[in-house]
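Please fill in the sequence for the structure shown.

STRUCTURE ENCODING:
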């Protein structure tokens, strides 16, 4: 592995889904892992049989004290954090018009501000060692805005932009950044973790309402395998030139490809208008 032979992984949101599967695979490989959740009792089972390699911690990424305490304890136990996986997050669905302000802000606190706070807490150690890998779990919604998922997409678009800038800042320091963009997987995202605000405005029933209904009925039937996704994430961190973007699942791959092609075609169609917005005497 490019980082070292016995890396330390710090993974947020390990109670279910990608975080849990990733933690299990990391420990099975003989590596060390800090497994976290808001309720530490839900991840303590992950440490059984790996007491010398695993550390279970309580962590709410919306609480700065929790973040500082968890990072400090992880570094005290293992000496370093080599891979940070920002996995904690959840889905929220509502029409843009009917989104609840408190619910919207709460999602940004977890999906964006909590993720950024984790990065800020871990970066000093990675900079000092001139190595590390930050893996941010985004979504196909980081590229595509679906009806009913506008606020969730906004959080993931924010993660994409932050990650893009971060990768340029830390690349000269030996630190890698990868955004992971899953499509529909059989995690808890569309089940217990999902918050939905069904539309009351009739005009949104055929768009937002239909999308929310499809999402709820899809839970447990998604084509994506969380174990295979976790294996793909590990593969990316082992690469000498890891991807900045790792799209997971055929649905996400097709969707992101189509979105990028559509966007590029539209930009090219309006290229002359775009160029015409400059002062005419500017040399290019």
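FILLED IN BY: designer on duty
SEQUENCE:
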């Amino acid at each position: 592995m490019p980082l070292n032979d016995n890396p330390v992984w710090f993974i947020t949101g390990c109670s279910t889904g990608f975080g849990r599967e990733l933690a299990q695979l990391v420990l099975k490989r003989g590596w060390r892992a800090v497994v976290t959740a808001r309720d530490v009792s839900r991840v303590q089972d992950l440490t059984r049989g790996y007491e010398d390699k695993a550390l279970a911690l309580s962590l709410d990424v919306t609480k700065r004290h929790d973040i500082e305490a968890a990072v400090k304890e992880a570094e005290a136990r293992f000496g370093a954090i080599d891979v940070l996986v920002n996995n904690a997050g959840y889905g929220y669905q509502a029409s843009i018009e009917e989104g609840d302000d408190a619910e919207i802000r709460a999602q940004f606190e977890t999906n964006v501000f909590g993720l950024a706070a984790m990065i800020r807490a871990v970066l000093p150690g990675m900079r000092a060692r001139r190595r590390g890998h930050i893996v941010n779990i985004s979504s196909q919604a980081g590229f595509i805005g679906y009806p009913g998922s506008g606020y969730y997409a906004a959080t993931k678009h924010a993660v994409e932009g932050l990650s893009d800038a971060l990768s340029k800042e830390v690349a000269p320091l030996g630190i890698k950044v990868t955004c992971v963009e899953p499509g529909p997987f059989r995690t808890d995202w569309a089940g217990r973790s999902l918050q939905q605000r069904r539309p009351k405005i009739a005009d949104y029933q055929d768009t937002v309402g239909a999308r929310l209904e499809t999402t709820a009925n899809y839970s447990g039937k998604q084509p994506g395998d969380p174990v295979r996704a976790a294996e793909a994430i590990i593969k990316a961190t082992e690469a000498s030139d890891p991807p900045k973007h790792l799209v997971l699942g055929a649905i996400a791959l097709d969707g992101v490809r189509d979105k990028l092609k559509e966007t590029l075609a539209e930009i090219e169609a309006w290229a002359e208008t775009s160029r015409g917005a400059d002062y005419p005497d500017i040399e290019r």
